[in-house]
Write a sequence for this structure.
């Protein structure tokens, strides 16, 4: 059976294009899953730390601070933005 090379190439190119789109979408979804999984692990660590605390915090606790705060940014207006491990932030 003979196959028209032009038709074959056209069909092949269409399949390659579909594959590349599906692969790009797969990569985006896989990255989103990995980010959510990492966030879940961070939150679980924060929850474990808070549960181990047992009583209200009366003074600064470096271990608790490190478990809950991801980073702090100081703006040019000297406002502080605290970003917690769950991704939420507060400005002061």
């Amino acid at each position: 059976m003979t196959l028209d090379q032009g038709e074959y190439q056209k069909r092949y190119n269409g399949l390659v294009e579909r594959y590349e789109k599906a692969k790009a979408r797969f990569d985006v979804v896989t990255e989103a899953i990995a980010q959510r999984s990492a966030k879940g692990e961070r939150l679980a660590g924060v929850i474990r730390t808070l549960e181990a605390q047992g009583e209200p915090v009366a003074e600064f606790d470096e271990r608790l601070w490190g478990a809950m705060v991801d980073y702090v940014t100081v703006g040019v207006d000297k406002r502080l933005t605290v970003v917690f491990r769950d991704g939420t932030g507060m400005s002061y």
User: Anything to note?
Assistant: The radius of gyration is 25 Å.
